[in-house]
Amino acid sequence: MSSLFPALANGSVAQRPALRFGDRSLTYAELGASAGALAARIGGAGRVAVWATPTLETAVAVVAALLAGVPAVPLNPKSGGSELGHILSDSAPSLVLAAPGDQLPDPVGRLERVDVEAQGSGEAAAPVGLDPAAPALVVYTSGTTGPPKGAVIPRRAIATTLDALADAWQWTGDDVLVHGLPLFHVHGLILGVLGPLRRGGSVRHLGRFSAQGVARELNDGATMLFGVPTMYHRLAEALADDTELAKALGRARLLVSGSAALPVHDHERIAAATGRRVVERYGMTETLMNTSVRADGVPRPGTVGVPLPGVGVRLVEEDGSLIGGYDADGSPTGTCDGETVGEIQVRGPNLFSEYLNRPDATAAAFTEDGWFRTGDMAVRDTDGAVRIVGRKATDLIKSGGYKIGAGEIENALLEHPAVREAAVTGEPDDDLGERIVAWVVPVDDPPAPALAAELSDHVARRLAPHKRPRVVHYLVSLPRNDMGKILKRDLRND
Length: 494
Ligand code: MCA
Ligand code: AMP
Hints:
α12 (451-462) links the parallel β25 (433-442) and β26. Helix content is 28%, strand content 27%. By secondary structure, it is an alpha/beta fold. The longest helix has 15 residues, at 28-42. The radius of gyration is 22 Å and the shape is globular. The chain has two domains: 6-380, Rossmann fold (3-Layer(aba) Sandwich), CATH 3.40.50.12780; 394-490, ANL, C-terminal domain (GMP Synthetase, Chain A, domain 3, 2-Layer Sandwich). The strands form six sheets. Strands 2-1-10-9-11-12-13-14-15 form a nine-stranded mixed β-sheet, with helices on both faces. α7 (229-239) packs across α9 (264-274). The site of methylmalonyl-coenzyme A has 26 residues, from α5, α7, β13 and α12.
């Protein structure tokens, strides 16, 4: 049983910067004191919600919960009432941690509130060893239908995934990470905040992503950048007429992309302008990180690399037969022809323990022999590198790196009085990867001119702004088969 953050007890890094958000920062000594004082206050709470704004307070709150051994439930502060209501009733936190002055909407505002003081004062906590199987975080993630499910992430998964990434990326306490990712998902929170803290290094959060912010930090000593493909796409666009940005990106030791596929065109534009290749890694809320291109390996745009140390990865046919896996030393076994497509299945210490309150969904997610079914479809190149080619479920949309279920948006649309029928698809989008498109049979024909904007706002208010339809098409009826099932492939605007 070892601590998640050895650096908090290591006097030799006490004065090193741990966290910086805008012009506010904390050294390791200050983080240990702030988080230690908060941990002492919340110790024994069942579960705590964290109002996960991109601030120092969120980082302190999550570290405090981890020090106290209290599972934390990060909340997207832009979530609407219906989504927050579901998460709170499902996860039943006993209190919410928020920055002083944060306005908490109902139902979050009805929870007991503890303000997070990120001042760096208080008793430094002596990190204690806690059971590696104990829950650390509950992170909500969308499925094809119904509301999001809470993936229970054990302490062991966080420690092993971060250590495996350290191996793959030669990530050390000397690294300074810059990013502008949200702090209520695995990417921004576990990799982007807990990652540097586990290494004893630093993170500088931009508050919100911008090419200028990235360039400023890379010119000022940052060594690594994490982002979703939309962010790299925007950097690639900006590079066209910004040689200073190209120089700044060229200084980075490592540029890492994940959460969705980075198109080869963007890989190539960035490499041509900066001389740096973006490294892709592949993960999931339920599995944390599974594979990565290694920092010491051959960069290969379009692949997500090879399994991380300790992670079992295999490719399986529709009928359950094995296409291939990897030996203990990482060498691929079975078919590696760049063509044979199968589902990626994984197992290892990086996996979640369960979906909260959903034993049915947890059981369905695993094969009989204990492998997690990712639903991602891939081939393996001749050298064993995994190349993701698609996803089993067409009703899961990845937009801006966020996973969004078509079903939850359809349900929200159907609650609007002007909607008779609704279907939602993800359509290719250069910037977002996929954009959410709603196909609506309106009650009134023709619909009111402002209806499309109103439906978009309705979804943003009930669920979250990133789940809003970017386009609304009106139809007289939805295409259905004899059983009444909507034929999404036949949805066309003609
Ligand atoms: C717009 N806004 C609205 C509305 N329209 N608000 C309310 N109602 C509306 N109708 C607001 C938004 O809230 C936002 O506010 C602003 O307008 C811009 O919204 P949007 O256009 O959606 O944002 P964007 O600028 O296009 O965002 C692109 C982005 C973002 C920055 C790339 O998509 C993003 O942060 N993606 C990261 C997703 C991520 O971390 N995924 C990891 C999960 P404001 O201006 O205040 O912001 S995957 C994962 O964790 C696994 C393990 C993995 O592998 O990594
Ligand atoms: P989430 O549930 O939000 O954690 O999203 C996980 C999903 O993101 C995976 O199942 C993949 O479909 C996708 N994903 C993550 N990283 C990559 C990547 N590098 N390339 C392609 N897809 C990815």
